[in-house]
Amino acid sequence: MAMERTYIMVKPDGVQRKVVGDIVGRFESKGYQLVGMKMVQPDRSLLEDHYDSLKEKPFFPKLMDYMSSGPVIAMVWSGKDVVATGRKMLGATNPLDSAPGTIRGDYAIDVGRNIIHGSDSVESAEREIGLWFTDDELMSWQDHSHDWVY
Ligand code: RTP
Q1: Any idea which positions bind ATP (predicted)?
Q2: Which end of the chain is more exposed for a tag (fewer CB within 10 A), N or C?
Q3: How many domains does the chain have?
């Protein structure tokens, strides 16, 4: 069984629009385990590291402005196939293509205000978790509730 961790981040628009509780609730209801969470006002160097692969994209400066415009909620969720399933729960990057029922499909219209980030692979999840969290901010507690999920 692929037990994984993923990095999920409610972006500044999601915090301002007060959908944090709903997003946390969706991951909890699905059966995933929260192992780390904090509110952060990210500085540009952290955001540049996080979005390093997009540095050459024309939208990169706008993305930096957007992501540094307010606090974000940084989270680490753990569970079976949580990276791929988390991306499904988020919906497509462009909310116009996101299915209703997904987070972006339910809350967003514009790709430049798409509410949430989720790691796109196990490797990028581990890289992003290392960028946003120190080891002592991540819990390793025994959650037996997943015995009732899988
Ligand atoms: P994310 O990293 O935020 O979860 O998004 P993603 O993998 O689904 O998409 P990615 O291509 O990595 O893009 C990162 C974020 O950049 C913004 N974006 N703006 N054409 C545009 O203006 C444009 N394209 C992408 C979005 O906020 C996207 O989530």
Answers
A1: 11, 59, 87, 93, 104, 114
A2: N
A3: 1
75 inside domain: yes
Is 59 near ligand 1, meaning CB less than 6 Å away? yes
In a domain, 78, yes or no: yes
- b or e along 79-97 (b: 16 or more beta carbons within 10 Å of the residue's beta carbon)? beebbbbbbebbbbeebee
- The answer, yes or no, to whether any atom of ligand 1 lies below 6 A from the CB of 117, is yes
Its domain, for residue 132, covers: 5-42+71-149
Question: What is the pTM assigned to this prediction?
Answer: 0.96
Paired strand residues for 102: 100
Instruction: Give the pLDDT confidence of 73-109 residue by residue, as tens digits.
Output: 999 999 999 999 999 999 999 999 999 999 999 999 9
Concerning whether 117 is annotated as a catalytic residue, the answer is yes
CATH number assigned to the domain comprising residue 14: 3.30.70.141
Residue 50 within a domain: no
Give the whole-number percent of the chain exceeding pLDDT 90: 91
d(CA 72, CA 14): 8
100 within a domain of the structure (yes/no)? yes
Decide if 44 contacts 68 (C-beta within 8 A): yes
> Could you report the predicted ipTM of this complex, rounded to two decimals?
0.93
